[in-house]
Amino acid sequence: MTYSFFDLLQLIGALCIFIYGMKVFSDGLQKVAGNKLRAILKGMTTTRFRGILTGFTTTTITQSSSTTTVMVVSFVNAGLITFIESTGVIMGANIGTTVTAWMVSIFGFKMQITPIAIMLIGIFFPFMFFGREKLKNLAEAMIGFGILFIGLDFIKNGVPNIQENPEMFMFLDQFTEFGFLSILLFVLAGTLLTLVTQSSSASTAITLVMLFQGWIDFPIAAAMILGENIGTTVTANIAAIVGNVYAKRAARFHFVFNVFGVIWMLILLNPFLNMIDQVMSYFSPEVGSLFNITDEAGRSNATLGLSLFHSAFNVLNVILMVGFVPRIVKFVEKYQKDKSKTDHEYRLKYISSGMMSSPELSMTQAHKEIEMFARLVDKMHYSMEGLLFNKQNRRDHFLKKIKKREEITDNLELEIAEYLTKISSYNLTEDATRRIRGMHSMINDLERVGDIYYQMSKTFERMENEGTHLPEEAMEKLKSLLDLIHEAIRHVRQDLELDNDEADLSVAMEIENRINKCRDGLLEYYYGQLEKKTYSNQVGFVFLDYVNRLEKIGDHIFNVNEAIAGVKVKAAYEKVVEANE
Q1: Residue 488 CB: number of other CB atoms within 10 A?
Q2: Where are the chain's structural domains?
Q3: CA 252 → CA 94, 365, 524, distances in Å?
Q4: 42-51, 408-417, 509-518 — which one is most confidently predicted on average?
Q5: Using the 8-state DSSP alphabet, how is residue 471 labeled?
Q6: In CATH, what is the architecture of 358-580?
């Protein structure tokens, strides 16, 4: 045997180059797609068939079904989509992952792509330094494409030669003599290979290389592909460990769906492979059967046949199983029960778990959390109104609610900020950087609103304990300002549901002006009552404290609207431009 440990290290290095090239290619494509990924995400939530198309498209862009399914688990966990809506995306991801196999088969084995790959790197590399941002992202994708196929070429050259290493071939060949049991063994081998590489694309490429080099025959390669369909579900299930019950259900659905698909395919494997062989023989009659490969042309044709098997299996699996999705969902829900009702609380266990896919989609996930943050602030306002105007017997209830929610706002700000910092470590576009800064500003202002409501509740509690109360007329005046603040909160929640470009600051400015006028009117009322000595200084100071704090809440809410519309960033940019001029 001529294959040394040094040769093995070279093969591992070649595999690493391939995986790195796939990552760079995927990151570049995602940056080129940019806002389109968010548009694709919005299309998930309509029908199951649109979800399938979304999963296919997203996986084609990310070049990884694992990335798509982990992304889906993250979004289910964060409440971006429901468990039912995620099922279509997961099915589409299974189809999308077959694109990689076709790309590798056509460019890696049918064509001499390596010289073209090196040429692409040479053409696009300079744009990484002086091109426009979109051109830089395209250059990154093309460089990753080149590295990917250079790595594939290294893998082909690094795999042991059969003639020079017959012992290794005999070792593999002894596992192919057990009939159907051999098929099951190589299904397991494909699953383990995907677990080790943590990439279905990489494990598929390795299987294609082994088939091309003659280490395994066509049925064994097909069995490994089936195993890789099971192995690719493990990544999402690992990600869901720290998620809520709905994230776990989405991950379990992926596993169950793929396992059921592999089971029915194993039952029909021989006739299905014969059908693939007939199709390939029809289009390439001069090459011969996929079951009897004799030369390099036959081996190259077999890689195309394996890609056809991969695609046909996943497409048919979706067509056959899509009608059984409700039953699979019920099975998963029965198996993965909701043991706790705390999943519905506004505690941020989602994005701090590190389940990030791409920066663009992670920002969408963070934005959803900020929407929930604003909803929590709205609930705090409701509790504050209840505290001031409801009956005494519910006082303790509202005080506890405000205190609990203020603690949650502290937690929300910290964890969202940490998550945004993680996203910032990526190589982001200018637009993404601007949006992240805006999000930091939003969570800071929303947290300050939570603090102010809590401070107001403590003031109220102290007054109650001392037996002092604001006059009914003063409370009615205060109610007018509270109503305006509530209107501002509702408006900011509406703006958060829109894209940045759609947010209209004019309405927020009009509400802010009304708040300021109302505050001025209340101050006039306060000084008038003070001069008339209608109530004591202590009561007057409490009234003034409420007015000032509510006006500050209005300012913070307006700051959030500014951040949504990007006004602050735009103004700062214009100042820099003016200074440079």
Answers
A1: 25
A2: 5-335, 358-580
A3: 15, 21, 63
A4: 509-518
A5: -
A6: Up-down Bundle (1.20)
Given a contact cutoff of 8 angstroms between Cβ atoms, the answer to whether 213 and 108 are in contact is no
Tokens of 540: 């007057």
Q: Where do the H-state alpha helices sit in 198-295? A: 200-213, 218-239, 245-267, 269-283
Task: Give the 3-state DSSP-derived string for 515-567, with helices as H, strands as E and coil as C.
Answer: HHHHHHHHHHHHHHHHHHCCCCHHHHHHHHHHHHHHHHHHHHHHHHHHHHHCH
332-372 tens-digit pLDDT: 888 777 655 444 444 444 454 444 456 766 777 788 888 88
Residue closest to 144 by CA, chosen among 317, 17, 302, 6: 17
- Label residue 244 by pLDDT band (50, 70, 90): low
pLDDT tens per residue, range 114-126: 788 888 889 888 8
Rounded Cα distance, 253 and 145, in Å: 32
First to last CA, the chain: 72
As given in the structure block, the two tokens for residue 510 are: 């009009």
pLDDT above 90 as % of the chain = 18
Contact assessment for residue 478 and residue 441, using Cβ atoms and an 8 Å cutoff? no
Instruction: Look up residue 395 and give its two tokens.
Output: 């006082």
Is the distance from CB of 518 to CB of 448 less than 8 angstroms? no
**Are the CB atoms for 240 and 72 separated by under 8 Å?**
no
Q: How far is CA 485 from CA 406, 481, 552, in A?
A: 18, 6, 10
* Integer-rounded Cα radius of gyration of the chain: 30
Whole-number average pLDDT of the chain: 79
Q: How far apart are CA 508 and CA 498, in angstroms?
A: 14
